[in-house]
Every structure is written in C-alpha cells, then in structure tokens.
Design brief:
The complex is a heterotrimer of chains A (about 500), B (about 500) and C (about 130).
Chain A lengths: L3 E4 L2 H18 L4 H27 L2 E11 L2 E7 L1 H28 L4 H19 L4 H19 L5 H33 L16 H14 L11 H4 L5 H28 L1 H6 L2 H21 L4 H22 L2 H32 L10 H4 L1 H15 L6 H14 L3 H27 L16 H19 L2 H10 L3
Parallel strand pairs in A: 1-2
Antiparallel strand pairs in A: 2-3
Chain B lengths: L5 H19 L4 H29 L2 E4 L10 E4 L1 H28 L4 H20 L3 H20 L5 H30 L4 H7 L7 H18 L7 H8 L2 H26 L2 H7 L3 H21 L4 H21 L3 H32 L10 H4 L1 H15 L5 H16 L2 H27 L17 H19 L1 H12 L7
Antiparallel strand pairs in B: 1-2
Chain C lengths: L1 H9 L1 H19 L3 H22 L12 H7 L10 H31 L4 H9 L1
Helix pairs in contact in C: 2-3, 3-5
Classes of the chains: A mainly alpha (about 500), B mainly alpha (about 500), C mainly alpha (about 130).
Chain lengths: ~500, ~500, ~130
C-alpha cells in the first residue's frame, strides 16, 4: 500500500525519551534505586510511544518530522514507516527486558561505574530508535555514528587492558569503515542522485553506470561493519569482553541489527530491488552473505568460551538477514527481514542465559559447564528454547523466518542457496545442542556436584524466561510483525 | 555613529582600548579584564549588525577619510568579509575571557602588556579582512605579525627562540607578498584591489603577472603554514603563552586563507587563477593532499597535546587550500565553511588544553591520566571538539568535510578525497589515543571533594562550554549558514 | 649574447636588487648566528624597498618637491617629476621593517640573557642538554 505521512512530534519524542533520561540518570548518581527507576521509566515510556504509532502505521499512515535542513536537499528528517516501525518495536520492547536484566546483573556482581553504564545505555537505545526512524541516509549516518560512540564506554566498561584492546578493535572496525567506506559512498550517491531520501524503488535507477553502482553497493555492504559481514566481523568477538547485558542487547539486538537494518535500507530504499535485479547485484550480496554464514558457523564450532560461540553464531545469523534481502524474491526478503525480530528474541534469551550462568557460577567456558543444567533447569530450559528458535525448528518463531528463506531459495531455483541454508542449520544445531546436552546429561568431571550453585537471581531469571516464552509465542502469533514486514516490502 | 560607519568601529574600538589598557593597566589591574572584554563584546555585536545589514542590503564600499579610490584606501564590506568580521570578534572575545585566567597564572604582573598586544592583534585582524587595498593589506598583515611575534615571545622557555624563527619565516612571507604587490603596481599603476582587477584582464598575459601571482601566493602560504612551508608553526604555537595560543591558533591561519581567497578572486580573476597556467590548479590540489597526509602523520608522532593540535592545524590548512583550489562552487563552499568551523574547533580544543594546563600544569600525554574523572566538563567539551575534528555529525566538522569531499568528487580530484578520508581516520586515532589515556588510566592522585572539585575555574570553563555548544549549533545550522551567508560570499564567476 | 648583455646593462639596478635579495635570503637561512639572520632579513627588505623606489624613476626627471606657487600657476608636468607614490609606500615599509627589527632585537636580548650565546647551534645544544 502507498504510505502517507503526517508531521508529528512522536518520532522525536520516542528518540528523546531516553536521551533526556540521561540527565536524571547522571544526577541520581548517589541514589541507585532512583537511577534505576529512571531507566525503567524511560524504557517503558519509549515502548509506549512507539506502540502508540503502531495502529496508524498498520493502516498506512506514517509520521514524518524535519529537524533541520543541514545540506541543500538533505535535511535531518525522521520518518516512521513500516520497516522502521518493525525495527523500533522489537528494539524498544526488548530494551525493557534488558534494563531489568541489567539491573539484576550489575547489582549481583556489584559492578563499578553503574551510572555511566546506564547513561550510555540510554543514549545508545535513543540512537538505535533514531536509526529506525531515519528518513534519509544522512540522518541514518548521524545516528549510526552516535550509536558507535555511545557504545564505546559500554564495551570498555571493565576498563582493564583487555577492555582497552577490544575498545580499539571495536572503534577501528566500526568507525574506520563508516568514515572510510560509507562516507564516500554516501557522497557519491548524493552527487549522482541529488538526494539521499529512502524511496520505495530506490533513488539510483538510471543515474550512474553499472560499475559505479556495483562499487557503491560493495562500499555500503562492507561499510556498515556493524552487520559483521566478513571480513568486517572482527570487532564482534572482541566486544564480548563487555558485561553480558551489554553483549546481549547491543550485540545481539541493537548494534548488529542497526548494521543489518542500514544495509537493508540501502538495498530497499537507495538501490531498489528492481535495479539490483537488473544489474545482477543480488548475486554479490548472496555470495558474501553465504560465505559469512558458513565460515562463521564453522568457527563457532571451535569456540569454548560461551559468549564467543554466541558471537560467531550472531555473525552467521546476521548474514541470513542480508542473504534474504539479496535473494530479491518475496519470500526471501520476508524471511530476511523477519529474522531480525526472531533472531533478536532468540539471541537475547541465549545471552541472558550466559549471563545468568556467569552470575550464578562464575563460569565462562562450555567445557566447565557440565551438569549445570540440573542445578539451573529454568535457565537451561530457556537456553534450549532460544537455540531451537535460532536453528529454526517449529514451534518456535525462528522457524517462520527460516522457512521463508528456504522458500525464497527454492522459488528462485537457487539450489546452492538451499544447500547453504540447510547445511548451516545443521551447523547451528551442531554448536548449540552440545551445550544443552552436556548441561543436562553429563556429570561434571572430577569435582563434586557443584553444591553452592543455584538458579540465577530473579531479576535475571524473569527476563530470560519471558523472552524464551515469547520466542515460542511468536510462532503462534506472528501477525503484527508479519504484516509490518509485508507492508515494508510493499507486498 | 551611523550604520555605514559601524564596521570601522568594529576595528577602532579594540585598537583604542589597547592604548587604554597599556596606559592605565599597570595601575588599575582589575580594570584590564572588563575593558578588554567589553571592547571585544562591542566589536562582536557591531560585527553581527554589519553582517545582518550586508545580508539584507548587499555589500558596500567605504572610503577612509573620504579620499577617493584609487588613491585613497577603501574598505570592502561584502558577505565574506562581514562573516569574517563576526568570526574574528566572536572568537577573540571567547578567547579573551579564557585568557584572563591563563595570563593570571602564566604571566603575573604583565597582563596589561599581554592584553595591549592582544587587542592590537585583534584590531589588525579585523582591519585585514576589510581592506580593499593591496598595500594596506601588507601593512595590516605586518601589524598582526609583529604583535604575534611579541605575544609568542612572552612565553617562557624556548618561546623567544621559536618566536625569532617565526620572525624570520614570517618576514620572508610578507616580503614575498610585498614583492608581488610591487610587480602588480608596475603593471597596473594602482594599488586598489578592485582597480587592479579591472585593469588586469585587459593586459596580455605577462610574465610579470605570473610572477606577481606566484610571489603573492607563496608569501601567503608561508604565513599560513601551508606544507612544506609550515616549519615555524608547531614550535611557535605550542610554546606561546596559553592565553595567546588560544586566540592566535584559531584565527591567524584562517585569516591568511581568507587573504589568499581575496588575492585569487578580488585581485586576479577566477579565469586567470585557475586556467591561465595549465597544471597549476591540479598541482596545488596534489600538494594540499600531500600536506594533509604529511601533517597528520607528523601529528601521530607527538607526545604533547598542544603540539599535536598544531600539526592538526597544519593539516586543516591543507583542507582549506585544497578546497579553494578545487575550482568549483562546492569546494569553495567547503573551504569557506571550513574557515568558520576550523576556527571554532581549534578554539574549543585550545581552550580545553588551557583548562587542563591550568589545573595540572602539563600537557604531556602521560600526565593526562584519568582526566575524565578529574575534569569531566572540560573533557566533555574536549570530546565534542575531537568528534568535530574527526567529522562526526551533527558537529560542524562533518559538514565542511561533506562539501570538501563532494567538491573533490565533482572535480575528479580523487587524491584529495583519499587524503580527506585518511585524515579523518588519523584524527580518530589521534583523539581516541588521548580519550583512552584520560578514560582508562587511573589518575595519579585521587580527586578530593565532589565531582567538580578538580574542574577548571569558571572563567576558563564558560568560554569552553560555549565553544563546544557552538560546534553543535553551527553544525545543525549549517544549512542556513551555507545557503544564506556563504553562497552569497562566494566570489562571483566561479564554475558552478 | 649581445642582446642579453644589453638587457642586463640596461636594467643593472634590478639585477643589483636581485643580488641583494639573494644575499639577504642566504643570510636568513644559511647563517647560524641569530644577529646575522636578522641582518639578512634587513638586507632582504631593503632590496625590496629599493626595487619599489626604482619603479618610480623616469629618465631626466626631477625629485618630487616643487615650488608651490610655480605649481599652482603653471601646473605640473608629470613626465618631469619622478613618481612619489612608491616613496611614500616605502616609508611605510621602512617603518614596518624597523618595527620588526626592534621586536627581533628585543627577543635576541632575551635569548642572550637566557642562553649566553647567539649562535643557533650552541643554543640548540644547550636546549638538548
């Protein structure tokens, strides 16, 4: 359907709720309970503001707001359309759970500098929603950079040498690619097309030679390093040194999804699927994505550190989303876009479990986690549900997205892609099931049966159980998300 | 004081107050600050009014003392010079407020001398951007230079030697410029810029014209520290007293870039500048790209914050010279916008350095540990300045890079694009090194008292925060700034 | 060759200024003593001043000081009077040159007090140690 847009302050309000909450958070340094309640208030407020816009978007009425005309023809502009709403809904909803989880995690471990942590978090989620609601490439770039910079204090929270080294890696990959690749690409696009707005059908059709367009696509694909397409994936495993709530949210849901979202915006809004089809550029995208999926899954098999294994799993799953878009078929693109949500719910569950395991037992390595499942049955149960969703088994949400991807590959008669999809699902199972199996069925070697370890604290347990159940629920009730995706793809 | 005289008062008031400060400053020490600040405040407001007038009613020419041109000296107030007037007076005002504290600490008992030179320097700069006479330009250029030599020599340690080196190099530059003006005088018989501009196209292309152009340009390049003629700058600017550095660094090189623009477009025409001698335009863009890269590389080797900033300053000069010589409107827009933006960024960073040195006494990297805890507001402003240098939206640095890169892409000068992108990345490395040291490492002594106990004094902090906010405001306001002021300020006759 | 020689002889004053300029330039850059550098700067500036003054000269003309009443009654023939404008400009330039020299000398006094020498290499050694 054709969307019509009305001016409204709602998108700005949604972004600013958490940006403004930074101030009271910083000021309530001495009173942790007050500070935590500001975070929660902002989280719930943000979700409500986003949800308020949902019915109108579903009916085809979006919102737009121009903030400042900074370059002729390219204002800083916010626009709420189906795709943006989809991403913002998922991100703001999951942030509520992450906030609750963070509070529990940080307090149990008595981490230092919690004020800075929560303040940076607030800015980061504001930037994420900003990316979701960007109307053009410049605004997206602005919020993308803001996200990179505001997550730096979060990644380097521990402030030790390891954190500093990963912080450097994080910035050199992410800032280096956004300044070195995206900025020139953005400027060339502006010069060629005269505008940077995201239009259905793209703005580049017929504006430049196919060589230029191919170059631009490659620059964008690798420039948005947050999407972790190989070889721009190196920062993600390094960023696992951050506290688990940071890893779970930002690297399982927000930062990496922003990368994929940006690539998808460029594919749908700047290039347009027709142009990509004409120039056979879909092939480029699928090749890069497939390679990343396979290599990442293989590396994940070799990782003993639980969070690193999850990180490589994320790298692979992100490429599923890009792969779906690259297929340029209806089912494929639906699957790719939908996987943003399904993977988010599943992965956040898995990271929550990893954090819960750390809080309860201080264990980081899978080889040490034998028999833990019997002591922490709820946590491991949630882990099972999350991993089933990522692998793509019914009755979990991930099945819907992966099924669509498979359908897209079959429809397009791309048998190689079918093989990649099936093969990588098997690999996913291969690196997830052992964790659960060993947790439940293998006794810990040597030491007695882990006497002091019990289930994780409630503040950690409730979020992870909720997201696990929601992964289950999304299989049965995917309607809202599916409708948003279909609307976004104009199907 | 009618509206048509206002611009003269912009320059005259600091000049007269300089004399007042000198005569009465030693006795009435407490009056120095208010006199200087109010003089500069008046200049800023008057400059703002002048700019508004010019935007509404168009530029105008003013004959000094009613001696008619081409024999008398003419002042030209067009959008570009009005913009520069506002920039200079605003930056000088902000820096003066910060300098009050710095000189109190570094030059006790000599503040009246410092501010005399400071105010004459500002008056000279203001006159420099208004003048319409080529020889008058030389005189004002030397006025600003002499006061700068004096200000830099007031610093301790190696500063006099650095200042002497600057005298030698600066005089070479000024004399080259004078030589160029001499050739022009022989050719045209007049010194008025507009007059020369009307006579020159009628002459056949002469070796003398090319020589004049070459000499004037090289002379100005020495003055603005365009690589490889930049050797004097790092020493001179980093060893100067803090209060002097925070005003000289943002303004001197930018005003000299403005002078280069005037020479290129108001004395010679765009057709001559860019197209008369083939290869010159492209060659200079290559040199500019090289300048950016070499200066950024040299900055990487520095261990002192202020020295690092001076090398970055040399790289920024490369941005502006390259942008002007790209020979298209977008590049020029970028260069003029960068004059404004770089002045503000440099002001912010030098003020932050001044605040740090006021509290901790040193700017060596290993003394900067844990600064985020000790001086959170200063470091917050420093971070905004750093982001602007790197080119992160919505700070202003991003938008001038936008136009410069776009101009380079349009002109096909890919080496300049590469240099700009690499320079942004190197700036990111440079500034994040400092952010890392200030963020990760624990301070040597724990800060006693509350959160803001170790913070810089208010007189240093307020201008710093104003500068940091200005970076964001100018960035977000780039659209109106470009479309309503800079587009008018661009010299006419440019290739679109 | 003959052509070249006539050129040089005809404009011998300009060649002289070029030589002076080069001497001054060399002294500024090549000499190690700071006072010599300063002298070089002065020579350089003087050469330019002479250059300017030369541009105003006319063959067989008189200096630009005329009798007031003679000028008012009979007018002035510009061809008979050398151009006074460059002289005036150079007065300004001389003032600038003197001011710079003054500031430079003051700085040299300061340097001498601190390092006890005015040789550049000795000063650099003292700084390094």
């Amino acid at each position: 359907m054709i969307m019509s847009y009305h001016p409204s302050l709602l998108p700005l309000a949604a972004i600013c709720v958490s940006l403004l909450a930074t101030v009271p958070i910083l000021l309530s340094d001495r009173r942790p309970n007050l500070r935590e309640s500001w975070t929660l208030l902002a989280a719930i407020g943000k979700f409500c503001l986003v949800a308020v816009m949902l019915p109108s978007v579903l009916a085809g009425e979006g919102f737009v707001l121009t903030l400042a005309e900074v370059v002729p023809g390219v204002p800083i502009q916010l626009r709420v359309d189906a795709m943006g709403m989809f991403f913002a809904l998922v991100a703001s909803f999951l942030w509520i759970f992450t906030s609750i989880y963070s509070i529990g995690y940080m307090r149990s471990l008595e981490e230092h500098d919690q004020t800075r942590y929560f303040a940076s978090f607030a800015v980061a989620i504001g930037a994420t929603i900003g990316v979701a609601f960007s109307a053009n490439l410049l605004t997206l770039y602005l919020f993308y950079e803001l996200l990179s910079l505001s997550t730096y204090p979060l990644v380097t929270h521990k402030q030790n040498d390891e954190a500093r080294a990963s912080g450097r890696k994080y910035l050199s990959f992410i800032l280096g690619t956004s300044i070195g690749l995206v900025l020139p690409a953005m400027l060339i696009t502006y010069m060629v097309a005269g505008t940077l707005d995201f239009m259905p059908g793209g703005i580049l059709a017929g504006q430049a030679s196919s060589a230029t367009l191919s170059l631009l696509l490659v620059l964008f694909l690798f420039g948005f390093a947050k999407a972790a397409l190989m070889p721009m994936h190196g920062w993600l495993p390094a960023a696992m040194v951050a506290p688990t709530p940071v890893s779970s949210f930002l690297h399982g849901v927000a930062v990496v999804k922003v990368g994929v979202f940006s690539i998808l915006r460029v594919i749908f809004g700047i290039f347009g699927t027709d142009l990509l089809g004409e120039l056979d550029l879909g092939l480029t995208i699928t090749v890069v994505a497939s390679l990343t999926i396979l290599v990442a899954s293989l590396i994940a098999l070799t990782q003993d550190n639980l969070k690193r294994r999850l990180a490589y799993s994320t790298i692979g799953q992100l490429s599923y989303m890009v792969l779906g878009a690259g297929m340029l078929s209806a089912a494929g693109m639906t699957g790719g876009l939908l996987h943003i949500a399904m993977h988010a719910f599943g992965k956040i569950t898995l990271f929550f479990c990893a954090g819960a395991i750390y809080v309860a037992s201080h264990k980081k390595y899978i080889s040490e986690m034998d028999g833990l499942g019997r002591r922490m049955p709820l946590t491991y149960g949630a882990f099972l549900l999350g991993s089933l969703s990522i692998i793509g088994m019914p009755p979990l949400g991930g099945f819907i997205s992966k099924w669509n991807l498979l359908l897209g590959a079959i429809e397009g008669q791309q048998l190689l892609l079918v093989a990649v999809l099936v093969g990588s699902s098997l690999l996913n199972a291969a690196y997830f099931f052992p964790i659960v199996y060993r947790g439940f069925f293998i006794s810990p070697a040597g030491e007695p049966d882990n006497p002091g370890i019990q289930e994780a604290p409630l503040c950690c347990l409730i979020p992870l159980l909720t997201t696990a159940v929601l992964s289950l629920g999304l299989f049965f009730f995917p309607d809202v998300l599916l409708q948003l995706v279909r609307q976004a793809l104009a199907l | 004081m009618t509206a048509t005289n206002l611009h003269l008062y912009v320059m005259a008031v600091p000049l007269l107050s300089a004399f007042a400060v000198n005569l009465f400053g030693r006795r009435y020490r407490a009056a120095i600050g208010p006199v200087a600040v109010s003089a500069l405040g008046f200049s800023t407001i008057a400059a703002l009014l002048t700019l508004l007038r010019v935007l509404q009613q168009g530029g105008y020419r003013y004959t000094v003392g009613n001696w008619q041109p081409p024999y008398g000296i003419e002042l030209v107030i067009d959008p570009l010079s009005a913009l520069m007037l506002l920039l200079i007076s605003a930056v000088a005002l902000t820096a003066a407020i910060g300098a009050l504290k710095s000189t109190e600490q570094e030059l006790p008992g000599r503040e009246h001398l410092f501010f005399t030179l400071y105010l004459i320097l500002v008056a000279g700069l203001l006159g420099l951007v208004m003048t319409g006479d080529a020889f008058n330009l030389y005189v004002l250029l030397e006025i600003t230079s002499i006061t700068t030599y004096g200000l830099i020599a007031m610093g301790g340690g190696r500063a006099p030697l650095a200042s002497f080196n600057y005298i030698i190099m600066g005089s070479i530059g000024a004399c080259f410029y004078l030589l160029g003006v001499g050739y022009l005088y022989i050719l045209t018989g007049t010194l008025n810029m507009a007059d020369i501009a009307s006579i020159l196209p009628g002459l056949e292309s002469h070796a003398a014209m090319a020589t004049a152009f070459g000499f004037m340009l090289v002379g100005l390049w020495v003055k603005m520290a365009f690589f490889p003629l930049h050797n004097w700058l790092p020493n001179a600017y980093s060893l100067a007293p803090t209060g002097a550095g925070m005003m000289i660094a943002p303004l001197m090189t930018k005003v000299t870039v403005y002078l280069m623009i005037r020479v290129m477009f108001s004395i010679f025409s765009p057709e001559y500048t860019f197209f008369a001698h083939s290869g010159v335009q492209a060659g200079i863009v290559w040199v500019a790209a090289l300048a950016i890269l070499c200066a950024s590389a040299l900055a990487l080797a520095q261990r002192n914050l202020r020295r690092m900033l001076t090398y970055i300053l040399v790289a920024e000069v490369g941005y502006m010279v390259g942008g002007v010589w790209l020979a298209n409107t977008t590049g020029m827009t970028g260069a003029v916008l960068h004059i404004v933006n770089d002045a503000l960024m440099t002001l912010c960073l030098f003020l932050a350095a001044a605040a740090i040195v006021y509290r901790t006494g040193s700017l060596e990297f290993d003394k900067l540990r844990g600064l985020y805890r000790r001086m959170p507001l200063t470091m917050a402003a420093f971070t905004v300045g750093a982001f602007s240098m790197i080119g992160v939206p919505p700070t202003c640095g991003f938008f001038s890079k936008w136009y410069l890169i776009l101009g380079a892409v349009e002109a096909g000068h890919w080496e300049f694009v590469v240099a700009l992108v690499l320079s942004s990345l190197i700036n990111a490395v440079l500034f994040f090194r400092i952010i890392e040291i200030a963020y990760f490492q624990k301070p040597e002594q724990a800060a006693a008292g509350g959160l803001l106990a170790g913070e810089a004094p208010l007189l240093l902090l307020k201008p710093l925060l104003v500068a940091a906010v200005a970076l964001l405001a100018v960035g977000i306001g780039s659209g109106p700034l470009v479309s309503q002021v800079i587009r008018l300020a661009l010299p006419s006759g440019m290739v679109p | 060759m003959n052509q070249l020689l006539t050129e040089i002889v005809a404009k011998y004053n300009y060649w002289l200024y070029v030589v002076l300029m080069m001497i001054g330039f060399y002294a500024m850059i090549g000499k190690r003593n700071l006072v010599k550098k300063l002298l070089g700067m002065n020579i350089f500036q003087t050469a330019i001043i002479l250059f300017y003054v030369s541009t105003g000269v006319k063959r067989g003309a008189k200096i630009p000081i005329v009798d007031k009443y003679a000028a008012l009654s009979q007018g002035v023939d510009p061809g008979q009077i050398i151009n006074p404008l460059p002289h005036v400009l150079m007065l300004t330039a001389i003032v600038v040159s003197v001011s710079v020299t003054g500031v430079a000398l003051a700085i040299l006094v300061r340097i001498y007090r601190r390092y006890g020498t005015l040789e550049e290499d000795e000063i650099l050694e003292k700084i390094r140690s």
